[in-house]
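Journal club prep, notes for RB
We'll compare a predicted complex against what the paper describes. Inputs for the S-adenosyl-L-homocysteine case:
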Amino acid sequence: MNPAAVRFVLFEPTHPGNVGAAARAIKTMGFERLVLVNPATCQDPEARARASGALDVLEAASVYQDLAGAVADCGLVIGASARHRRLGIAELHPRDCARQVLEASVTGPVAIVFGTERSGLSNAELDLCHALVHIPAHPGYSSLNLAAAVQVIAWELRAAQEPGLDTPPPEAPPATVQDMELFYEHLERVLLASGFLDSANPRNLMRRLRRLFNRTRLDRNELNILRGVLAALAPGSGERAWDGRPNDAP
Ligand code: SAH
């Protein structure tokens, strides 16, 4: 986790008090990067009063004219939405959002974008988001105050770093690149032998399968199960590269 890489972006905030309160919310959770897109006002007495001990965060806030500029260098952009949206964008629970942000912050800047008080984020802003986060508040009234929403999300990011709340250690070490290469060779032999993969017309099949399996980030036990499945379906196909039964075969 790299807190300096996590950017809290307020899109067109209209109430200076909310901007100050958001600065305080992020500082109390160990963050420092506040970004304002087209704010109604920047340095306002009410914003300063509400920032309280987080004046440094408020004063260091960057200001952009549009959202595209504010998130241009980010590898992950998550939009906070008070409503469920049916737009084909993944909607994350704040806890899952926190995990993804923590992971991505190690490799580069990450943004969490909060909408304007009255109308939230419009489709044009959502177009720039990789995913949404929704705080599952009371379904009858789920729209939090802007700074309160920032506080909840920032808290989740902090909680995700606490050892007690961290994800438990994996049961098995991750499959290595070498393990995966042996698996792909085995899979390819079985697919060729079965006729499903036609060497005259491979249609990128192996590349697609690689993408599919690489996305799941298999651990060694899971990989061994798949090798076992291939060996069981096509006896003799795996002996060049595989030497045993799955670690946790039933
Ligand atoms: N009336 C607006 C809500 C604006 S509240 C609407 O219906 O969209 C201002 C911002 O606070 C929202 O755009 C969102 O970024 C954040 N927010 C408020 N409630 C939230 C919730 N339950 N989950 C996630 N973000 C929320």
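Talking point for the session: The pocket of S-adenosyl-L-homocysteine is lined by residues 80-83, 114-115, 117, 119-121, 133-135, 137, 142-144, 146, 149 (CB under 6 Å).
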